[in-house]
């Protein structure tokens, strides 16, 4: 301050001194903060940890969302595949039934009667039929390998 900037009023002079003291106190505090390197490092680390926690939380949320979407898509794919498999199985069963009926029709009448009897018994005892089919497959496999 130059000599001509000095106020004549004592109250004004005291107010200027108080303002200067506050500004000087703020400056000293800022310099002390800058000079306190360990505290600044600790503060910086704390900020870094907070940012890392926040990023981890966001990543966790995104991962959960992606997993939910993948689960939904997988469920839809399984449902579609099951429906397609059922359609294919129904079609194949229909074709097999038609082929079997045609084959039975081409047999002589006495053989047709026996086939009808066997079909009726198979309907009553499906486990026995499955066991017989397995035995037949094993017998054919054994005969084929023996013939080599």
From TrEMBL:
Instruction: Please give the InterPro entries that the UniProt record associates with this protein.
Output: DUF3618
Q: Which UniProt keywords apply?
A: Membrane, Transmembrane, Transmembrane helix
User: Carries keyword Transmembrane?
Assistant: yes
Q: What residue intervals traverse the membrane? A: 127-144
Protein name per Swiss-Prot or TrEMBL: Putative membrane protein
Q: Which source organism? A: Saccharothrix espanaensis (strain ATCC 51144 / DSM 44229 / JCM 9112 / NBRC 15066 / NRRL 15764)
Recite the lineage of the species: Bacteria, Bacillati, Actinomycetota, Actinomycetes, Pseudonocardiales
């Amino acid at each position: 301050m130059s000599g001509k900037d000095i106020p004549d009023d004592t109250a004004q002079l005291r107010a200027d001194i108080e303002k200067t003291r506050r500004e000087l106190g703020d400056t000293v505090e800022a310099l002390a903060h800058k000079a306190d390197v360990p505290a600044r490092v600790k503060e910086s680390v704390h900020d870094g940890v907070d940012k890392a926690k926040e990023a981890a939380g966001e990543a966790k949320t995104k991962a959960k969302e992606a997993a939910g979407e993948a689960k939904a898509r997988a469920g839809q794919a399984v449902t579609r595949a099951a429906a397609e498999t059922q359609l294919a199985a129904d079609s194949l069963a229909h074709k097999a039934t038609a082929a079997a009926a045609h084959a039975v029709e081409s047999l002589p009448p006495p053989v047709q009667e026996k086939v009808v009897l066997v079909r009726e018994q198979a309907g009553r005892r499906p486990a026995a039929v499955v066991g017989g089919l397995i035995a037949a497959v094993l017998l054919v496999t054994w005969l084929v390998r023996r013939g080599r």
